[in-house]
């Protein structure tokens, strides 16, 4: 296990652990969503890290990058970068919706605490005729 | 009063998260970091790197992968964003009404004039980014977000202006349909959805190159820009 | 006649993008677009269904053959599930025809269509990351669906369900993504068939970690114990259509992904029956948990929700027995569940529509007199769920018992018996309530559209229950598909 692996993978895993811990243990909905965002960032970093090959440069051919017409063996893997591009957009979508749902919950019940909502008895009042 | 420390209260959560993170760590260490894979010839990316520029006409290999080789994924991604934007708009309109309508504070002088100068530049930059997606890092999504940022800034310095949400919806729909349409061109011409039928058009490295790819990125840029502007507008709080 | 299955995705996407445009001009017309989209999907799958009897229906995108281009591999199992999902979505939307429409009617029907599209995409794609993207499509649509309140809801249960699912579903998705990253790092490909053929070189620990991640991630979506806490929150607060979609589209898609990855990709990499055993006993535990929780529920939505959780457990265990009978049972149980659950949700929502928040059991009291047609259809649905003949579930349970018995899994048989008894208990209580006529029973006419769709569901239940024959050949292919990875690998190579 070389130093680079420790730094990159270890750092990412630390982020992931923080995120999972936050989602599992925080009662405040917004904090749980923050935990989700941290998990998403960690996994995105993980994907990019998988594609990295040391010593190689960005997968853009020609122009200023200096990569000539045969980029094989000279560029990193473009696939994980493409995947992360998609994943970041998806995290945006997920986080936005989660936040709006949290706002709705707060406006309706006055609290952001999921556990405070007791299951209660069934509401037997009939509302309409 | 029983005071248990933060750590004590959330011990099971800590244990689970460390267990999961640790396991994943060990697995990835096994996979390796920064080393070229032994069987590089067999990886799918080998072909993308070797033939990407001639098969797709784009110098940015990530764009080749995102829009051409894996264009179907990008279509799905655009859809996810569309669903989220629509959902956010619908859910916000369902929120209980706040009796007091707070208007945003009037912008300071610096903001007002600074914004007036920078907004067009930001928007232009956004257009640049998605127009050059096949030549430099960037693309439709990044460009669209930058444009939406310009829009957000606009709403901040001119809180009295209402958003043209009709126009935004129109752009969004047309851009989305264009993406599907560009894909259907492939279906019609060669029987394969999202085939880049004019990939060889133009010279590599020019603005006009990459076949349908820049067109798709333009559609995505417009769609994301108008979509996220719509989201910003919903979050502003006035009814659509 | 074979139609390109990519149209199963292109048609609803085009419809979805058309909706905002049309809404500008006429909301009334925009309402119909998702329904038309679903009908288009139904047409495509109807035309292609016959080809499934010969194997998979495949296609490519992007202009490149797999594994460089994303491929579509609609296998018999995938095709069956896709057909079922489209059917349920049509059932939900058609039942609402002619009813009052809230201001979010257009969004609701669009999200129903899109959740279905995501589910269909998940089961027909041949590429792992593509499957993740479709998982997100279905998940996001699910969050929006979960947030839409029932008419009388005053307690904000919908927001709670949506918030819980948004967070938990998000975590599930990204755990799956981490697993995908791991598999990509190990095999350098994202094409499922190619991955399956490279599995032999994978380190067992890596494969095991990937399995763990997929198990947690897809297991959350498939409502498996102990990852299903979120599901009750959603079932409790959402509309009957949403609950139907969650238990037949979203959950089934998650289950499919779990089975596909476990049986065909990861399982062969790990020596022994480790993978199957975890799934088998996890499924059995889920089944017991779900049925027991349903038995103690006082709210109708929660009861039916827990029942769905139980069925997911039953299905997982069934497929994981590892024999042909197990797979046969699993497929039939899926079909039975997809037919009966939406029917039950629909009728139950009708019976309980006067209540705000939770719906107590006594809402069903005297239903035979207040809405006789609905009561009869609901009774058929209940009996179909328990497994009374004629129904697909009856055949499913028959094969399940014979499969478990012939593999000498006596503990499993015991669990199945206990579970079925509990099931009969609380579902029987419902029937008792339906026929319990009191003096204060009020008239509650069933809307026409709902009644027609209910009759269709009942008809299908009886049809397949009496004549499961035509399904025999396709189920044989499903058995081969799941239990022999080489079959799928061959199909995946175009």
Fold and architecture overview:
The complex is a heterotrimer of chains A (129), B (240) and C (494). Chain A is an all-alpha fold and 129 residues long. Chain A has a single domain, classed as Helix Hairpins (Orthogonal Bundle), CATH 1.10.287.3510. Chain A is 60% helix and 0% strand. The model of chain A is unreliable at 118-129 (pLDDT under 50). Chain B is globular. Chain B has helices at residues 6-9, 11-31, 44-56, 61-69, 71-93, 109-131, 140-157, 165-190, 213-236. In chain B, 67% of the residues lie in helices and 0% in strands. Chain B has nine helices and no strands. The longest helix of chain B has 26 residues, at 165-190. Chain B is mainly α and 240 residues long. Chain C has one domain.
Helices and strands of chain B, in N-to-C order?
HHHHHHHHH
Q: Give a count of the beta strands of chain A, DSSP E runs of length 2 or more.
A: 0
**How many extended strands of chain B?**
0
Give me the number of helical elements of chain B.
9
Dominant shape of chain B: globular
Question: Can you give the helix content of chain A as a percent range?
Answer: 55-70%
Unreliable stretches of chain A: 118-129
**Overall shape of chain A:** elongated
- Compute the number of helices of chain A: 3
Brief digest:
The complex is a heterotrimer of chains A (129), B (240) and C (494). Chain A is built from 3 helices and no strands.
Write the layout of secondary structure elements.
The complex is a heterotrimer of chains A (129), B (240) and C (494).
Chain A: H1 3-25, H2 29-51, H3 78-109
Helix pairs in contact in A: 1-2, 2-3
Chain B: H1 6-9, H2 11-31, H3 44-56, H4 61-69, H5 71-93, H6 109-131, H7 140-157, H8 165-190, H9 213-236
Chain C: H1 7-25, H2 27-49, E1 57-60, E2 71-74, H3 76-95, H4 105-124, H5 128-147, H6 157-187, H7 192-197, H8 204-221, H9 229-237, H10 240-266, H11 274-295, H12 300-320, H13 324-351, H14 367-370, H15 372-386, H16 392-406, H17 410-434, H18 448-466, H19 472-483, H20 485-492
Antiparallel strand pairs in C: 1-2
């Amino acid at each position: 296990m070389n130093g680079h692996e420790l730094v990159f993978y270890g750092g990412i895993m630390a982020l992931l652990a923080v995120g999972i811990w936050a989602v599992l243990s925080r009662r405040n909905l917004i904090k749980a969503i923050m935990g989700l965002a941290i998990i998403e960032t960690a996994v995105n970093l993980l994907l990019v890290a998988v594609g990295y090959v040391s010593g190689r440069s960005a997968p853009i051919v020609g122009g200023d990058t200096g990569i000539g017409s045969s980029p094989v063996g000279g560029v990193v893997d473009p696939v994980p970068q493409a995947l992360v591009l998609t994943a970041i957009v998806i995290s945006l979508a997920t986080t936005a919706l989660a936040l709006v749902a949290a706002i709705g919950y707060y406006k309706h019940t006055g609290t952001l605490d999921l556990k405070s909502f007791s299951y209660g008895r069934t509401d037997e009042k009939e509302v309409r005729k | 009063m029983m005071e248990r420390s933060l750590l004590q209260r959330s011990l099971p959560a800590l244990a689970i998260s460390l267990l999961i993170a640790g396991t994943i760590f060990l697995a990835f260490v096994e996979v390796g970091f920064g080393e070229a894979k032994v069987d590089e010839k067999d990886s799918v990316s080998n072909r993308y790197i070797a033939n990407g520029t001639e098969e797709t006409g784009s110098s940015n290999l990530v764009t080749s992968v995102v829009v051409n080789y894996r264009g179907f994924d990008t279509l799905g991604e655009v859809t996810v964003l569309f669903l989220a934007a629509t959902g956010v708009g619908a859910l916000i309109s369902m929120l209980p009404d706040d009796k007091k309508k707070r208007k945003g504070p009037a912008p300071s002088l610096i903001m007002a004039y600074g914004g007036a100068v920078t907004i067009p530049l930001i928007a232009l930059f956004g257009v640049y980014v998605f127009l050059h997606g096949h030549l430099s890092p960037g693309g439709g999504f990044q460009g669209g977000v930058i444009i939406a940022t310009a829009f957000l800034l606009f709403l901040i310095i001119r809180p009295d202006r209402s958003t043209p949400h009709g126009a935004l919806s129109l752009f969004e729909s047309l851009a989305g349909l264009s993406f599907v349409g560009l894909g259907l061109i492939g279906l019609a011409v060669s029987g394969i959805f999202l085939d880049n039928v004019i990939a060889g058009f133009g010279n590599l490295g020019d603005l006009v190159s990459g076949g349908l790819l820049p067109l798709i990125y333009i559609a995505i840029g417009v769609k994301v820009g108008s979509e996220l502007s719509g989201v910003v507008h919903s979050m502003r709080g006035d009814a659509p | 006649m074979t139609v390109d299955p990519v149209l199963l995705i292109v048609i609803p996407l085009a419809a979805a993008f058309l909706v905002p445009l049309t809404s500008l001009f006429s909301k009334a017309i925009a309402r119909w677009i998702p329904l038309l989209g679903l009908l288009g999907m139904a047409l495509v799958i109807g035309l292609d269904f016959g080809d499934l009897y010969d194997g998979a229906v495949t296609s490519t995108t992007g202009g490149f053959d797999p594994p460089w281009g994303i491929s579509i591999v609609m296998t018999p199992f995938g095709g069956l599930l896709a057909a079922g999902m489209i059917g349920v979505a049509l059932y939900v939307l058609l039942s609402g025809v002619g009813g009052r429409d809230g201001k979010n009617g257009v969004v609701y029907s669009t999200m129903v269509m899109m959740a279905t599209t995501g589910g269909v995409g998940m089961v027909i794609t041949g590429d792992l990351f593509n499957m993740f993207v479709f998982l997100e499509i279905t998940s996001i649509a699910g969050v929006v669906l979960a947030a839409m309140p029932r008419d009388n809801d005053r307690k904000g249960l919908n927001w709670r369900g949506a918030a819980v699912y948004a967070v938990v579903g998000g975590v599930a998705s990204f755990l799956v993504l981490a697993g995908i990253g791991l598999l990509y790092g190990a095999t350098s490909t994202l094409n499922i068939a190619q991955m399956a053929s490279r599995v032999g070189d994978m380190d067992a620990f890596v494969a095991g970690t990937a399995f763990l991640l997929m198990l947690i991630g897809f297991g959350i979506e498939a409502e498996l114990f102990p990852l299903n806490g979120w599901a009750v929150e959603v079932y409790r607060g959402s509309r009957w259509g949403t609950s139907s979609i969650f238990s037949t589209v979203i959950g089934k898609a998650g289950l499919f992904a779990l089975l596909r990855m476990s049986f065909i990709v990861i399982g062969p990499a790990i020596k022994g029956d480790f993978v199957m055993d975890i799934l088998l006993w996890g499924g059995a535990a889920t089944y017991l948990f779900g049925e027991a929780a349903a038995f103690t529920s006082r709210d109708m939505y929660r009861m039916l929700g827990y029942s769905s959780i139980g069925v997911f457990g039953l299905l997982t265990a069934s497929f994981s027995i590892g024999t042909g009978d197990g797979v046969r049972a699993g497929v039939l149980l899926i079909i039975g569940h997809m037919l009966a659950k939406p029917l039950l949700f629909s009728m139950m929502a009708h019976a309980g529509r006067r209540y705000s928040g939770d719906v107590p059991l006594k809402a069903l009291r005297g239903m035979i007199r207040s809405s006789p047609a609905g009561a009869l259809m609901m009774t058929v649905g209940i009996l179909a769920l328990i497994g009374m003949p004629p129904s697909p579930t009856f055949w499913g349970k028959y094969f399940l018992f014979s499969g478990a018995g012939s593999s000498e899994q006596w503990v499993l048989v015991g669990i199945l018996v206990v579970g079925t008894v509990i099931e009969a208990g609380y579902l029987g209580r419902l029937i008792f309530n339906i026929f319990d006529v009191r003096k204060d029973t009020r008239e509650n006419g069933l809307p026409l559209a709902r009644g027609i769709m209910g009759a269709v569901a009942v008809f299908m239940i009886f049809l397949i229950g009496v004549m499961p024959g035509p399904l025999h050949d396709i189920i044989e292919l499903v058995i081969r598909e799941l239990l022999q990875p080489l079959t799928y690998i061959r199909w995946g190579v175009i």
